[in-house]
Amino acid sequence: MNVWIAIGLTAVGCYAVKLAGLLVPGAVLERPLVRRLAALLPVALLAALTAQQTFGDGRELVLDARVLGVGAAGVALLLRAPFLVVVGVAVAVTAGVRALA
Amino acid sequence: MAHETAHTERPEPADTGGGKADAAVVRDALGVGVAVGLSGFAFGVTSAGAGLTLLQTCVTSLLIFTGASQFALVGALAAGGNPFTAAAGAFFLGVRNAFYGLRLSQLLALRRPVRPVAAQWVIDETTAVALAQPDRRSARLGFTVTGATLYVLWNVTTLLGALGAEAIGDTDAWGLDAAGPAVFLALLAPMLRGTVERAVAVVAVVLGLGLLPVLPAGVPVLVAGLAAPLVLYVQGRRGARRGAAPPAAGSRGAVDDEAAVGSGGADETGAGRGEERE
Q1: For chain A, how many structural domains are there in total?
Q2: What are the angstrom distances between the C-alpha of B68 and each of A59, B23, B186?
Q3: Interval B29-75: pLDDT, tens
């Protein structure tokens, strides 16, 4: 049930902000500080999510095969690999390290 | 969804001056739609690995339809977050779509009855394709074709990914728990071009990891979001001390505004396209 509540809330919220952009008068969102914050907010959230899902296990911080997998994905990104390749590299390296360990 | 469309080579920009051939617009739109739509696989697999049922996974893609928020949602649920903090994190990631909608409403000049329907497709990729077009007709065509292609493919591949994950059982043994963070990293990378963005990312990582052991699941990410106003505030103070215009709201802001929609705030499409438009 909790999962459905979360999906429902997110769906309504995400649709509402999409629609708001199309309906709200421009002046409200055009203030430079508001736009700057909106551009930086995803940076903060994505950085925190990347770190947590790489090092987090429940409420503990751990070092395991994921670290190498995500590290390999970082290298793939530097080499400008396509999105699916980046994700594939992370998965393959993580699985490989676990198989060897 | 995929940031890598940023690097998808597009055909020559319309140099005919006025219009652009419909075929060229459709080709651009299909290229982005297909490439990104396929990454629904990654979402389907991650969502199933996070413990969502097939139906929950598919409904998520059908109704939420904005990649980063979807990954954040299932990640938070997998980590044991309560539904409200999980939804809040996903929601904040989706807020940037409001700014895309703002640009699109001026560009596409949609009639009011159409807007509630078009709204679901207001995401990074459709915005990037529409803004890259030279005129309204092409922009409308690009938005529609990209939106339709992506919506159909993203949902079909979500289903296939979830089915695949269920078939193989223990997703961790296959390294699939690394897919989520790799997706976030891929979305984040093109945004880290400026000093301010990097500072925000570092502060957010420190907050996100530091608070993980002490706050309930899902909350540390929300607190980490405060890195954005925090860094802007510090930057503004420094600017003021030097006697210059505060960078956050002054001259710097004007330059960054353009980039904000195309690249700074982009979930996936940003880099190349932001420059094209300027």
Answers
A1: 1
A2: 22, 30, 11
A3: 888 888 778 778 889 999 998 999 999 999 999 999 998 899 999 99
Contacts of A51 in chain B (CB under 8 A): 204-205, 208-209
Interchain pair B231, A40: CB under 8 A: yes
| Yes or no, beta carbons of B89 and A2 under 8 Å apart | no
User: Most B CBs within 10 Å: which of A87, A94, A98, A100, as the mutation test of the B interface?
Assistant: A87
- Within 18-57 of A, beta carbons closer than 8 Å to B belong to 18-24, 26, 29-30, 32-33, 35-56
Q: Is residue A53 part of a domain?
A: no
Whether residue A80 is contained in a domain is answered as no
**B202–chain A nearest CA distance, Å:** 8
Question: Which chain A residues have a beta carbon less than 8 Å from that of B104?
Answer: 21-22
The model's pLDDT over B99-145, given as tens digits with 9 standing for 90+, comes to 889 888 888 989 989 999 999 999 988 998 898 888 999 999 999 99
Is A20 in a helix, a strand, or coil?
Answer: helix
Q: Domain limits at A23? A: 1-30
- Residue A23 included in any domain: yes
A39 occurs within a structural domain: no
Alpha carbon distance B15, A94 (integer Å): 46
Amino acid residing at B278: E
| Average pLDDT of the segment spanning B196-213 | 96
Among B38, B118, B178, the residue with its CB nearest the CB of A84 is B38
Query: CB pairs below 8 Å between A and B: how many?
Result: 351
Q: Which residues lie below 8 Å from residue B73, measured CB to CB, with a gap of 6+?
A: A6, A7, A10, B60, B64, B86, B87, B89, B90
Instruction: Enumerate the domain spans of chain B.
Output: 3-270
Structure confidence at residue B4 as a pLDDT band (50, 70, 90) = very low
ipTM, two decimals, is 0.91
pLDDT of residue A58: 79
Q: Could you tell me the two tokens for B143?
A: 């938005």
C-alpha closest to that of A51 among B124, B127, B221 = B221
